[in-house]
Amino acid sequence: GYVVENGVSRRCRCYIQILVAKLREASHLQDTAARFADFRTDVYPDIPNKEKYGIAAAPRVHMQNVLERCRNFTEHFYEDETHNMIFIGNAGLGKTFLCSCISSALLERGVPVLYFSAPALFRAFSFYGGTDSEEGEAVRESRKTAMSVDLLIIDDLGTEKQTGTRYSELLEILDTRARGTCRADGRKTLLRTIISTNLSPKNLFTYYGERVTSRLLGGFDLIRFAGDDV
Fold this sequence. Notes:
Layout: E1 2-5, E2 8-11, H1 13-26, H2 50-53, H3 59-75, E3 84-88, H4 95-108, E4 113-117, H5 118-125, H6 134-148, E5 151-157, H7 166-178, E6 181-182, E7 188-189, E8 192-197, H8 201-219, E9 220-224
Parallel strand pairs: 3-8, 3-9, 4-5, 5-8
Antiparallel strand pairs: 1-2, 6-7
């Protein structure tokens, strides 16, 4: 699994290939073929309309900048200057596809990624069956991984069934991941989170309350998606 070159030990190519395959299998990612090169900005309007789109620039120009920010996120993933991101915008604007692009790019580099739709994530956190069953063990591992994986992507936040525990479950996830995790050598590793939602910031307050929304809008870079449903 390792080779030594010039006195430096590193993972061999075959090890990395197996690791990437295993990470893909465990990521819950459905669109494993998504690539940044396939994100077409030409489908977005090239005429500015602030009243309609909520931004001053033309959606095509704006989305080119969004694409570049997502590329930078993957290229500088482990740097301190890289922040969590929350994608906000109407349905059909490419939020899920860019989440998949980010996942694919990082998995190719061997970065552990866990991708969940919001309904699937909260089903795991609301499961109270016994952990001695195969299903219970899988759910327990999903919850544990969601708290500690290098990148957690929660897609379509707000589409999950609203229950009295949703607030506390999301708060637990955000707070646990904000604290990071300690590696074997004692160094602290920052955990990154990406969330996509069709909800506006105002509706986030309505759904999740002030404490959760303040963490989202204060601890995440807000990336607004604009244009027509593609």
